[in-house]
Amino acid sequence: MSLSVRAFRPSDAKAVADVRRAVAPFLVCTPQSVAWEAANAPAAQHFRILVAELDGRLVGAAKTGLMHDSTVPGQAVANPMVHPAHRGHGVGRALLTAAEERLAALGATRIFACVHEDDRSTGFAERNGYHRSRTSRYLRLDLARTPLPPLPDHLPSGVELRTAADFGADPYPLYLLDAEASCDEPGDVPADAMSYESWLTHTWEHPDIDLGLTTVATVNGEPAAFSAVAADGLGRCLSAMTGAKRAFRGRGLAKLAKLRALHEARAAGCTEAFTGNDATNAPMLAINRAFGYEPYATEWRFLRELDAPQGRAE
């Protein structure tokens, strides 16, 4: 067998999306978003997709780059994925080696990787010098069969539910909301340096984010909570982010925004809804259980210090 690793080309977008959907069906991914992400990443991220070909067929891909939206320097991401039908041929190891070499050359000192909990992936990560950090729970909601709680007949005084598209003339207030909520998300590295320009590119203009389904709860006109929705046009949607400004927390506004977003997604033809939460995020996990979400997958955040000894794959 002939195995090679190279840089992504725009013509690879569909094959990369197919690999990601096969490995992580709980994530929304389209060929359009793969190509867009490769073309629009900010320079500070040094983002690159590496692809692996086995006998001329694209069977794996790895997203690599620096965590440019954090004030903690030297943090990087490498997420190799190999199509389940083509594992066992050294594809994952080849992708990981290429990713680590590239990130080390960029000055990375710590690499994070998202690893699906199964009988192969976590063991592979541990054999190659990575250790477990945090864990996330991915949940699935059958929108076609599971009844949603009804929306309230009357909203609290001053509260209005709008779509993100309503802010098309000036999305800056949504950036402020998202930036504050993201800072308080549980995680290994704080997302505390997201500029407005970066947010416009990575969130507002992202081709998978549906601005018509993304719901914003305002209080006296001020965006207070939101639930962002990504959709693939194939009946699946993903809660990309749900949160509230600190001053408005404890009022149930994030829950209300997410419930409205789910109702709108179902009305738009979505039959499956996915969401992911850090295992320590008890409030959002409770909200999702109340909506009827059921456990679907567990994903670990693994990390490796680049000066740590590296293991070998079996």
Summarize this structure as a short list of keywords or feature phrases.
single chain, alpha+beta, Aminopeptidase, 2 domains, 12-stranded mixed β-sheet, 8 helices, globular
Task: Write a concise synopsis of the structure shown.
With 314 residues, the chain is an alpha+beta fold.
Structure description:
The protein has 314 residues and is of the alpha+beta class. The protein has two domains: 3-137 and 299-305, Gcn5-related N-acetyltransferase (GNAT) (Aminopeptidase), CATH 3.40.630.30; 147-291, Gcn5-related N-acetyltransferase (GNAT) (Aminopeptidase). The protein has eight helices and twelve strands. A twelve-stranded mixed β-sheet has the order 1-2-3-4-5-12-6-11-10-9-8-7, with helices on both faces. Strand 3 and strand 4 (75-82) form a beta hairpin. Helix 1 crosses helix 2. It is globular, with a radius of gyration of 20 Å. The two termini are 18 Å apart. The relative contact order is 0.17.
